[in-house]
Design goal:
Blueprint (H helix, E strand, L loop, with lengths): L2 E3 L5 E2 L4 H14 L6 E4 L1 E2 L9 H6 L6 E2 L7 E3 L18 H5 L1 E3 L5 E6 L3 H11 L2 H17 L4 E4 L4 H12 L6 E4 L12 H23 L1
Parallel strand pairs: 1-3, 2-4, 3-5, 9-10
Antiparallel strand pairs: 6-8, 7-8
Helix pairs in contact: 5-6, 6-7
């Protein structure tokens, strides 16, 4: 699984929207077997330079599509598959996520998800992408960093499921960067629920212990 990377060479403005759509369509045509297309580009958060789902819909892509901007925590998803309700005006269950869904004047989701609302798309994508594809993406990302001399990374967000992916690569001898993972998401108030504590304990006792036993041996 690959992605189209347009940052920093490409910034979305009212004058470049058509060019962006053509680049996305060209990439999609060259990757017909990809169920989910990932991409990255710069854009302004001030309309009309903000790329709403209508822009991605013009590319006739299979959703969801992911366009994080430069220096801003945000996702842009298509009308279908964004997980934010598409045409529906009803608020999502989590008020923290709802607060960061950017809606138009009629109350419909615009396709832009900020901060905590990004979890809506991230959950859908994580569930849809096969495990081996996730491992392949992490492996390729590690090799990309290595080419630039990067040997250590910090993931400011994360979960037990993500840590288990890193651990799986490590156990295969394919993790080529040292990683530090946090528990939690962006701009989300976390609570020490039994489920959260259970995940934390599993990471501490099973994954961390296996790491140290391998180093000692």
């Amino acid at each position: 699984m690959e992605s189209i990377y347009l940052t920093p060479e490409f910034s979305i403005t009212p004058d470049t929207a058509d060019a962006l759509v053509e680049k996305i369509k060209g990439y999609a045509a060259g990757h017909p077997n990809e169920k989910i297309l990932f991409g990255r580009a710069d854009f302004s958060m001030t309309p009309p330079s903000t790329p709403l789902h209508d822009l991605l819909d013009r590319g006739r892509l299979r959703p969801p599509a992911d366009y994080p901007p430069h220096q801003r925590t945000c996702l842009v998803g298509q009308r279908k598959g964004s997980g934010a309700g598409g045409n529906q005006r009803q608020a999502v269950a989590d008020p923290e996520e709802e607060k960061y869904i950017i809606r138009d004047a009629s109350g419909h989701p615009s396709g832009v998800l900020l901060e905590a609302a990004m979890e809506i798309v991230e959950r859908a994508v994580f569930a849809a992408v096969p495990r081996e594809d996730k491992l392949a993406m992490l492996r390729e990302a590690s090799h990309f960093l290595n080419r630039y001399g990067v040997t250590s990374v910090v993931n400011a967000t994360g979960s037990l499921a993500e840590i288990e992916l890193y651990a799986a690569l490590r156990d295969r001898g394919q993790l080529t960067v040292r990683t530090r993972n946090s528990f939690g998401a962006v701009a989300v108030n976390h609570h020490l629920t039994p489920a959260f504590l259970a995940d934390l304990e599993k990471a501490r006792t099973q994954i961390s212990r296996r790491f140290w036993s391998q180093r000692i041996s």
